[in-house]
């Protein structure tokens, strides 16, 4: 029986939150509606931008993140997650504010690599500049050589695809952000990447395995798997 109540600390961004919600539904083996997990989502897009806070001293998102997490606690969730990789920079503070466990997407990605790609030593990461600058991927993937795009590719391809005028955050999911991300992925492969992690939840809305010639891990896929265990 799928009796546990799953919480999603969401809104970063809203479409990435909805994508994780759908992944959980699609991965759950059911015969009828009642077989699904109860899922409670606080889709809070008013949480201040995480990258601006980390890189430029912008408004901290921590109070809003904690309040959102506490809303889920009041609603009675048994376990929760955060479909925003950059927000994991603050996960310890969020976890300390609530009694239920928050599954760390970085931990499940690490476990996925150990299980399915044990021989991979060079891992490419496409993520926001905020996530890159924190070093959080290198911390969790300390067994491998983590490869990031060059500064120029990072800003002109990756960040433009996410935050640009025709970027994913603005609801654009056509060939414009896709081609930018494909180019960034090809750059990582040219630098020796044997595997690529889609280290920002928006990226996985556009860039898929069929667009890349090496294995791709979407953290939201493995996070959904972990939540329904």
UniProtKB/TrEMBL annotation:
Superkingdom as given in the UniProt entry: Bacteria
MF GO annotations: amino-acid racemase activity
InterPro entries: Asp/Glu/hydantoin_racemase, Asp/Glu_race, Asp_race
Protein name: Aspartate racemase
A Pfam family it matches: Asp_Glu_race
Record family assignment: Belongs to the aspartate/glutamate racemases family.
Keywords on record: Isomerase
């Amino acid at each position: 029986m799928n009796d546990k109540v799953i919480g999603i600390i969401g809104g970063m961004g809203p479409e990435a939150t909805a994508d994780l919600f759908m992944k959980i539904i699609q991965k759950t083996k059911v015969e009828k509606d009642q077989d699904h997990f109860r899922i409670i989502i606080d889709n809070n897009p008013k949480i201040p931008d995480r990258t601006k806070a980390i890189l430029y001293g912008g408004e901290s998102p921590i109070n809003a993140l904690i309040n959102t997490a506490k809303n889920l606690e009041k609603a009675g969730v048994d376990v929760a997650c955060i479909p925003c990789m950059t927000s994991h920079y603050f996960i310890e503070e969020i976890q300390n504010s609530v009694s239920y466990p928050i599954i760390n997407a970085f931990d499940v990605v690490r476990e996925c690599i150990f299980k399915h790609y044990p021989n991979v030593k060079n891992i490419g990461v496409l993520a926001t500049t905020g996530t890159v600058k924190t070093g959080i991927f290198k911390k969790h993937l300390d067994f491998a050589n983590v490869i990031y795009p060059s500064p120029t590719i990072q800003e002109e391809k990756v960040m433009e695809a996410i935050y640009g005028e025709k970027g994913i955050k603005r609801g654009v999911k056509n060939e414009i952000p896709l081609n930018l991300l494909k180019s960034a992925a090809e750059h990582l492969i040219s630098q020796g990447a044997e595997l690529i992690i889609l280290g920002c939840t928006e990226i996985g809305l556009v860039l898929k395995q069929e667009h890349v010639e090496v294995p791709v891990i979407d953290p939201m896929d493995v996070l959904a798997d972990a939540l329904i265990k």
